Structures are given as C-alpha cells and as structure tokens.
Amino acid sequence: MNRKSFSSAFSKALRRVIVSESADFVNTSAVFALRVGFVISLLHFSPILRTINERSDGFHQNHMSENYYYTMPDTNMINPNNQVTAPRQTSAAAAPKKKNSLFRLFLACLLILTVFLTIGGTAYFLNDLGIINIPGMASETSAGSRKGKQKTKTDGGSKSLSGAGAAEMTVPVQGDLTGCNVILDPGHGGRDTGCVFPFNNPKYDECDFNLRIAEQVKAELEARGAVVYMTRTDNEWVSLYNRIAQTHLICMDIAKEQGILPFSAEREAELRAALQESIDINEDSVASGGMGLMVGSGVGEDLQELMEMEYELEDVFFLAIHLNSNESRTLHGTQIYYVSDESVIQSERNQMRTNSEFQRSDFPIRDEYYGRFSERSETLSYLLYDSIVGEIPEFDTNAHQVLADNYAVLREHGLTGALIEVAFLSDDNDRAILLQDGTNEKVATGIANALEYYMMQE
Ligand SMILES: [Zn+2]
After folding, report:
1. Is residue 277 part of a domain?
2. Ligand 1 geometric centre to CA of 326 (Å)
3. What percentage of the chain reaches a pLDDT higher than 70?
4. Which of 102, 129, 156 finishes a domain?
5. What mean pLDDT comes out for the span 162-171?
6. pLDDT averaged over every residue in the chain
7. pLDDT, greater one: 387 or 45
8. Is residue 70 domain-shared with residue 210, that is, in the same domain?
9. What is the whole-number distance in angstroms between the Cα of residue 251 and the centre of ligand 1?
10. Ligand 1 mean position to 455 CA, how many Å?
11. 194 falls within a domain
12. Residue 237's domain is classified under what CATH number?
C-alpha cells in the first residue's frame, strides 16, 4: 500500500469515526452514561477519594450524614465537642481538596473517553484497510454494506446478504445446485387442511397452497440440478411420522449411494422394516404405533443411529413448506423455524408436565441424546428468510423472522433443515400476494438462492 492510499484510507477511517460514531451517539449514549456512572462510582468508593472526602478521624464531612452519626454510638459522637466543631473544620479544610477531586474525576473521564475512541478508531481503521474483520461491519471495499440488518439486496445481478452465521458478502447466483438433495415436505393435506381463511366459512386451505408452492420449488431446484424428493404429491393425508420415516429411508438410500451407510445388511433391513411400518400405519398417535422408532421423548437407540448417519449428509436438506395464521390478524410476512437441542429439551420438559399423552404409563421416556448441528439449520434459516424477502419485500415480517422451536418434522431426523412459514393466510395483503400469479415462482427462486448461498459457505 502506497502513502497516498494509506492517507486516504486514514482520512476515510477518521471521517467514519466522526460521522458514524456521532450518528450512533444517540443509541450508545445510554451505554456510555452507564460506563461513566460506573467509573465515577468506582472512583468515589476508591481509597483515594475516600481519604479526600473523609477526615483522618473518620468523621464524614457530608452534612446530610450528620443526623445519622447522632444516632450512632460512634466513638467520635461520644465527645460532644466533635459534634459542634468537627463539621466546620472539615468543610473549611476540605474545600481545596474537593476542587482537586473534581479535577481528578474530569481527568479520569477524559482519559477513559480517549481510550475508548482510540480503540474504536483503530479498529475501524484496521477494518477499512482489510487487516481485521469486525463482524457485522463491512469494509469500504465491499458494496452495499449495511450495519446490523439481515436483508438481501439485489445489486446488479449479485446479492449482498448478511445473517446470523453468514458474514456479509457479495456473491453471484450461479443457478447451480448440482450435488444438492432436498426433501420437500408440503405441510398438511387430506383430512388435515392446515390453517384456513375465512376462519368460520373457509374458502382457502393452507394444504393446497403448500403443495402448489412445493411443486414450484421442486421445479426450480431441479432446473438448477438438485435432486428433489416430496413427502406428499397430492391432497392426501400423510402423518408426521410417515413423513419422517420417508426422510430416513431417503437418507439411507443416499448414504448407501455415497458408500457411507454405517449399517450391516441385517441392521439395514431391520431399520427399513421399522420405518416402512410407520409409513403403512400412517397415524401420529402413540396408541396407533405409527410413531415407530421415533416414539418417546429424547432419542432412542435406533433413532440415534439414523441421526448420526444423517449428520454426515451435508448436502441433503429438509424443507417443510407451510402457511401461517394469526387469530387477531395482526401479523404478516415470512417466518422460518429450525430445531435446536435447547428448543427440544425445553419443550419436552414442558410437555411432560402438562400433556396427558406424555404421562401414559406405556409412554417411553428415553435416555436423552442430543448433538444436532443446529447452527447449520440456523444459518440456513436466516438465508431462507433473507432470500425469500429479497424476492418478495412485502413478506418482511412484523413477527420474529427466525425462531428455534420443537417441530416433529425437524426434530426426528439429523438433516439440516427448516420449516418455512411462507406468509400469513390470515393477513389480507399476504393472502392477496399469495393468490397473485408469479408469487410461487418468487418463493421458489428465494428458496433455491438460499440453498445456493448455504452451499457456497460450506
Ligand atoms: Zn401448517
């Protein structure tokens, strides 16, 4: 780097410190006040100031405190002379010292302020030069930088996006998902319509939207070279555990194809038979037996084996497609859910306390097994949100964008995945957009882009 570009970078950095820091000042002033308050109180209670504020005999000079001393059997108070003479002497003697203490305090504050600005300024400067990378703050060289926002912006055929786990970056969309396997799970179907609208006299069923969107996503992903599997292909009832059993079977096929199936032929046949039984029973209740090897809280040994196999399948994704509904009709936009160990533990503990199904004597409570790579799913979730809202800005939600929650279709397997609540069927504007031509294509493009970004990061 020559001197000219160095000095230009320096002046840019300096300008940024002044402009950016003063813009942020309103937001950070409360924190700053707290820091100053902390320092002042620290100094106040430090031995240096105490010796300035107090006489050597321990009599406090503050007049407000005198009442307190009168009621205390303090040795200084036993001598009545002290009560009269001491305060006067103290205030006279301490006056120059008080000035001195204020000056010291001022100096201390100034020193601390200087240290903060120096550290901050140096960090900004080094970030601008690209020597260090401050998370959430792009250097001047990367286009379209925006501080602290999780948004996708289209910028001349490339996308700049940021999200949790996704460093701000500018990447082109290649339209290539070769090597990517996606299990699409259109929510509900058959006797389970999902949410409806209007609530009392339904005209629209969620399950129909889910299937149409999923079909479009399948077409888009396949056009980019991905291999796509669907857990249901028409308006039929498919139990949750049927969907998960299908997922495990697909994963066993993929693992076998990749030569990483960790089971003996006998064990493989055993697991396949158990999973097929769940598909055939096609019911979710404990009594039906349809939960199969997925029944119970925690994770059983069979399920653990399957999940560990699935953790190794890094290019296989599970995406459930749903629509949202909100009774008070105040919420709108896209929401993405993923599952984490914490969300499962919390939810299962709660269910064991409150749900009679979990309190049956024959309900198996397993040894806990946790080890999900939930940060993978979290990263994918933010990318999905950013990319879908990048295509349809009206779907920018006023609810939580991304949440961890205990959804069975995400919990009972080991794949990186998410449940996409595309929009709120209960919201007039969301519903109007969902019914427009081209919306499903945009959602599909957003989902495909998110998978591309995710695979680029891996
Ligand atoms: Zn749903």
Report:
1. yes
2. 12
3. 64
4. 129
5. 46
6. 77
7. 387
8. no
9. 24
10. 27
11. yes
12. 3.40.630.40
pTM: 0.66
In angstroms, the CA 162 to CA 387 distance is 10
Question: What is the whole-number distance in angstroms between the Cα of residue 48 and the centre of ligand 1?
Answer: 65
Report pLDDT digits (tens) over 254-292.
999 999 999 999 999 999 999 999 999 999 998 899 999
Tell me the CA–centroid distance for residue 247 and ligand 1, in Å.
18
137 found inside a domain? no
Q: 360: CA distance to ligand 1 center in Å?
A: 27
- 164 is a domain residue: no
- Residue 117 shares a structural domain with residue 182: no
| Beta carbons of 159 and 449 less than 8 angstroms apart | yes
What is the domain extent for residue 308?
Answer: 170-457
Q: What is the pLDDT of residue 355?
A: 87
> How far, in Å, is the centroid of ligand 1 from the Cα of 420?
9
Let me know whether 237 and 373 are in one domain: yes
What distance in angstroms lies between residue 110's CA and the mean position of ligand 1's atoms? 58
Interval between CA 194 and ligand 1 midpoint (Å): 5
Q: Are residues 356 and 215 in the same domain?
A: yes
Confidence of residue 304 (pLDDT cuts 50, 70, 90): very high
Instruction: Give residue 421 CA to ligand 1 midpoint distance, Å.
Output: 7
How many angstroms does the Cα of residue 322 sit away from the middle of ligand 1? 4
Residue 230 is predicted with a pLDDT of 98
117-162: pLDDT as tens digits: 666 555 554 544 445 555 444 333 222 222 233 333 333 334 444 4
CA of 182 to the centre of ligand 1 (A): 19
Domain total of the chain:
2
Q: Among the three residues 107, 129, 151, which one is the final residue of a domain in this structure?
A: 129
**Do residues 187 and 118 share a domain?**
no
Calculate how far, in angstroms, residue 441's C-alpha sits from the geometric centre of ligand 1. Answer: 20
